[in-house]
UniProtKB/TrEMBL annotation:
Species this chain originates from: Scophthalmus maximus
Subcellular location: Cytoplasm
Main subcellular localisation: cytoplasm
Domain of life of the native organism: Eukaryota
Transmembrane segments: none
InterPro entries: GLTP_sf (IPR036497), Glycolipid_transfer_prot_dom (IPR014830)
Protein name: Glycolipid transfer protein
């Protein structure tokens, strides 16, 4: 089992450029995390994220020296694809991947901040719903929103989720949350930098699936 917190994101350089190879290596550990969440509904999400990563990697491998940063890929595709861009290639894959990453960021931040449903303290539905509303909901039509509601019902208990984050070991909640906070530092900076790049390059779309 490969765990989120075992594969930390690196600190970004002063220009906040995201190194493609390092980014792909780090995010490639995320999909296997879904295996320890149990329900098959998570396999849909896993394969979507896997597809995004595979697509970005395929472009990167065509010319690693040229595509050393994520921005270099997005700019090259903008110059190559004309009117089709940004709904094309690695630009589209990263557009969606960053939303999943933002979802994870908000979910973990909410847990780290101690937000919880006092009536159901061992559920993480309030945290998941917050992340969904802020990161994904507006890009989803009713069918996908229904998949979300199914995933929500299948979500693990808080204690099991924290245990999964801690490589299945019994770790004190406070220790696990301290690791989550540590993980979130570079992770949040990286996700923010990708969002900022999409805004600056005018690469963001808001169609719903
Ligand atoms: C994109 O998918 C493709 O990704 C993209 C291209 O084909 C594009 C074309 O328009 O579509 O349809 C997908 C969309 N992806 C659009 C939906 C998939 C199912 C989403 C179900 C949403 C449920 C999310 C809630 C999950 C609750 C989980 C609770 C767990 C405790 C640590 C947990 C991490 C959960 C992370 C969830 C991330 C969800 C990401 C969904 C992205 C999405 O909406 S391309 O493909 O360009 O590569 O070819």
């Amino acid at each position: 089992m490969s765990l989120l917190l075992d594969n930390p994101f690196q600190e970004l350089p002063p220009d906040r450029a995201v190194d493609t190879d390092l980014f792909l290596e780090t995010v490639s550990h995320i999909p296997s995390f879904f295996d320890c969440l149990g329900s098959t509904v998570f396999s849909v999400i896993k394969s979507d994220i896997n597809g995004n990563i595979t697509k970005i990697r395929a472009v990167y491998l065509k010319d690693p020296a040229k595509y050393v940063t994520l921005q270099a890929i997005v700019e090259a595709e903008r110059d190559a694809h004309g009117a089709q861009w940004p709904k094309v290639g690695a630009t589209l894959a990263l557009m969606w991947l960053k939303r999943g990453l933002r979802f994870i960021q908000i979910l973990l931040q909410s847990l780290a901040d101690g937000e919880r449903d006092e009536n159901n303290p061992n559920l993480i539905r309030v945290n998941i719903t917050k992340a969904y509303e802020q990161a994904l909901k507006k890009y989803h039509g009713w069918i996908v929103q229904k998949i979300f509601r199914t995933a929500l019902l299948a979500a693990p208990y808080r204690s099991n989720f924290l245990k999964a984050l801690s490589r299945g070991e019994e770790v004190k909640e406070e220790d696990c949350l301290a690791n989550v906070r540590q993980f979130l530092v570079n992770y949040t900076v990286t996700v923010d930098a990708i969002y900022e790049m999409y805004t600056n390059l005018n690469a963001e779309l808001d169609y719903a699936v």
